Amino acid sequence: METTLESLDGDSIKLTVAVDETEFDGAIEAAFRRIAREVRIPGFRPGKAPRKLLEARIGVVAGRQEALQEALPEYYGKALAEHEVDAIDQPEIEITGGVEGGPLTFEAVVPIRPKATVAGHGSLRLEIQAIEASEDDVAEQLDTIRRQYASLVDVDRAAIDGDQVTIDIEGTQDGEAVEGLTTTNYLYEVGAGAVVPEIDENLRGASAGDTLEFDAEHPDEEEEATLSFRIEVRSVQEQVLPDADDAFAADASEFATIDELTVDVRERITAMRRGQAGMMARDRAAQAVADLVDLDIPAALVESEIDGRINDMAMRMQAQGIDFKAYMEAMGQDVSTMRDEFREGAEVAVRVDLGLRAVADAEGLTGDGDALEEYLKRLSEQAGKDVEEIRDALSTSGRMLEIKADICKQAALEWVFERAEIVDQNGKAVDRVLLEPAEPVDTPSEGAQAAIPADAEKVGENSSSFLEGDEEE
Predict the structure, then answer these.
(1) With CB atoms counted within 10 Å of each terminal CB, which end of the chain scores lower, N or C?
(2) What's the CATH code of the domain at 310?
(3) Contact residues for 441 (Cβ-Cβ < 8 A; gap 6+)
(4) Based on the structure, what is the number of domains in the chain?
């Protein structure tokens, strides 16, 4: 098989492929064997009729057409691999010879990945969350733990956000009670935003003994209906947090003093952020490079990225024994809706891809060399095969192009990351030592886990199952 490549305008190339008659005849022979299994000829068992007889019965062209249908994709794939063509969509193929006899020739116009250009990628400023826990961070975490141990006290005033109100609630649609929206003695936090915003809007400013009646749009966007609510406010209570003292620390954690608990909280916040900082900084670098790409993204690239994400999701579910189709039906979703949900993220991923490729081109970074050899070595060890055998298989299948591109993009990301100015949200330079992988964090202490209260006087105790699943965080 002989091939040539010609660059065309508009991010496409043309492959010209010529398959000599001897090679193509092998595909024709295989085609007639398939036909023989399907065609009934008196005196011959299925699959045993000779080719000459079949040619006389159905014609030579029929066998060549069958061969074209089966072999053309293989010839096209070999041509792509030979020239390392980065095709992003289906080609336009024109058969120029060999339909009725002689060698097979065809031309394929192939859309290829566009080459972006970027500027300023060597002097990026990246902002990440401060790694060291601030006093406010520690205080916020301690308050979270304190809220788990808060008590409720009746107040003689109108309800405000954060108050706990005990209510009887009835939700109806067209005069019929709606399951899950009707209960009594339900403890609800004002401002929680459960179900519909009108619930919080009406509870704000309400006092014990008030009766509230209002309508709201159905929370399910697919339901074109109005819900009617009637709420009776039984009581209004505010949370009273325990003092942040030694007694609280001893009750809420394994520590004897509030100072010890505070130090533990600070260390764990810092350790968690340090563990995430390197990845976060690289994510910021990738996004910053993507923002430098000034190019209309081909729709085919976005659709391909979406396809990949859906396929990955389906494969992960299959590995867990979950039927993807059944999952979609249970969630009330279809593939079209899922594609729309994935679209924004896919567009960003495509820009990151094009941006990092552009950096690699600009800085002369390649997917060859030691990084590729190390990758092939690991792959050969996993597969139990020789490195050269792996290399040949990847090259023949066309996968080598993808692997080199991934290595190249990783090198480009590291190139950008090493030269970027990295600061926290306060504009303070981040010590790069803190961006290296940290030691794993031990199991959180009882205090850091914000222990859940056990008795009925603590916040969150409910007397009903109103909207099960929505009342607990």
Answers:
(1) C
(2) 1.10.3120.10
(3) 268, 271, 272, 275
(4) 3
d(CA 339, CA 322): 20
Question: Which tens digit of pLDDT belongs to each residue from 340-390?
Answer: 999 999 999 999 999 999 999 999 999 888 999 999 999 999 989 999 999
Structure tokens, 429: 């330079």
Asked whether residue 292 is domain-assigned, the answer is yes
Kind of pairing between the strands at 176-177 and 151-154: unpaired
Q: Tokens at residue 259, please?
A: 């100072």
Contact in structure between 81 and 397 (CB atoms under 8 Å): yes
Cα separations (Å) of 24 from 47, 78, 102? Answer: 21, 14, 9
What tokens were used for 125? 């400023």
Rounded to whole angstroms, the Cα distance separating 266 from 264 reads 5
Three-state SS for 371?
helix
Residue 327 contacts residue 260 (beta carbons within 8 Å): no
The CB-side HSE value for 110 (13 A sphere, CA atoms) comes to 24
307 in the same domain as 341:
yes
Q: What pTM was estimated for this model as a whole?
A: 0.73
Distance of CA 468 to the CA centre of its chain: 29
Domain of residue 429 covers 258-435
Instruction: Give the CA dihedral 140, 435, 276, 420, nearest 10 degrees.
Output: 100
> Do 71 and 167 belong to one domain?
no
